[in-house]
Design brief:
The chain is of the alpha/beta class and 369 residues long. The protein is built from 13 helices and 15 strands. Bound molecules: pyridoxal-5'-phosphate.
Length: 369
């Protein structure tokens, strides 16, 4: 048996007719950039998360960047971010001219350690980005409290957490805005690159609309220097089709996580991810921790058995070459640094079968025999 890390074709085949028709429709209308298909998706996506507005853009990185840009985050500002995240989170901060300030993750749930936020605040801190890593919401009550106490803008990086909830409230609605990625491998994936920002703030919404389209609301009348961050029509149409299935697919991911837990029970060298009782984890990734320095050997063993896994992420952001000028290494982020050596992401997608999950877990058991 072969178990891929991800299988986008399997999903496509379940909705092929609808997808093909949607793409053809965009071509028939020549609505390739922005336009009615993007608009329709924006409305539906905002509604799915209980937000008033949604701005579709051309990537999750653009979503983070355009949100901070519109909020006036820039030079001489600092933005607090977890170091245990995908590089795009701090990268978007740097793109505004502001400086990312890293905070370690807490050991159990691997999101930002809210007890360390306070220490990271300086007179220059403007915002904090809460990342809902792997599909599990950050501890939003504590993050929100820290943001309010220090008068910081709260931005959520929901790139891995479509439809996730904290205490029954959808992610992306706790602060001023929520930024999403629709990179093909994400829980809601485009057939190309795409992203979006949701918000209830009308001024922020208007500003982002202008910035994503060359600073012009009216064609050829440029009020600002913006960028071209428009979403493609084909992506809007594909996402609108897929959005209808997202709840069902998310349930499947959660079921698959349950099956992994069941079949990994008793393998004491491997720790499955902890689920916060107050959160609805949407399992973008199923990340186990491997003790005893065996992670790379286990990964290799699984690969030899045609089981493909990943590491998210092998190098915490503060140790990336791009941020070496900050010399953050002296400060140390021991939890994230240890974590990076122990984690292993097992195959996870809605179409994964129980047989495949069982096979993966059996091979993990076999490795320890
Ligand atoms: C994928 C991702 C992004 C960036 O999204 P792109 O669409 O790839 O630009 C940002 N943050 C996190 C946490 C991500 O996983």
């Amino acid at each position: 048996m072969r178990v891929n890390f991800l299988d986008l074709t399997a999903q496509y085949l379940t909705i092929k007719d609808e997808i093909d028709a949607a793409i053809q429709n965009v071509i028939d209308h020549s609505a390739f950039s922005s336009g009615p298909f993007v608009k329709s998706f924006e409305e539906n996506f905002a509604r799915a998360h209980g937000a008033r507005y949604c701005v579709g853009v051309n990537s999750g990185t653009s979503a983070l960047h355009v949100a901070m840009w519109a909020l006036g985050v820039g030079e001489n500002d600092e933005v607090i971010v977890p170091t245990n995240t995908f590089f795009a989170t701090p990268e978007a901060v740097s793109l505004t001219g502001a400086e990312p300030v890293f905070v370690d993750c807490e050991p159990e749930y691997s999101n930002i350690d809210t007890r360390q936020i306070e220490e990271a605040v300086t007179g220059k801190t403007r915002a904090i980005i809460a990342v809902h890593l792997y599909g599990q919401p950050a501890q939003m009550e504590a993050v929100k409290a820290a943001a309010e106490k220090n008068k910081l803008l709260l931005i959520e990086d929901c790139a891995q957490a479509h439809l996730a909830e904290y205490k029954g409230k959808p992610v992306g609605t706790f602060g001023v805005c929520g930024c999403f990625s629709f990179y093909p491998g994400k829980n809601l994936g485009a057939y190309g690159e795409a992203g979006a920002v949701i918000t209830d703030d009308k001024d922020l919404y208007s500003k982002m609309l202008v910035l994503r389209d060359h600073g012009a609301l009216k064609k050829y009348h440029h009020d600002l220097v913006g960028h071209n961050y428009r979403m493609e029509g084909i992506q809007g149409a594909v996402l609108d089709v897929k959005l209808k299935y997202l709840r069902k697919w998310t349930e499947k991911r959660r079921e698959n996580a349950g099956l992994y837990r069941k079949y990994l029970e008793g393998v004491k060298e491997v720790t499955p991810p902890s689920e916060m009782p107050e959160a609805r984890h949407v399992y973008h990734l199923f990340v186990i921790r491997v003790s005893g320095g065996q992670r790379d050997n286990l990964m290799k063993y699984l690969e030899d058995n045609k089981i493909y896994t990943g590491i998210h992420y092998p190098i915490p952001c503060h140790l990336q070459q791009a941020y070496s000028f900050m010399d953050q290494s002296k400060k140390g982020y021991p939890v994230s640094e240890r974590y990076a050596k122990e984690i292993l992401s097992l195959p996870m997608y809605p179409e994964l079968t129980e047989k495949e999950i069982q096979y993966v877990c059996n091979k993990i058991r076999e490795f320890y025999k």
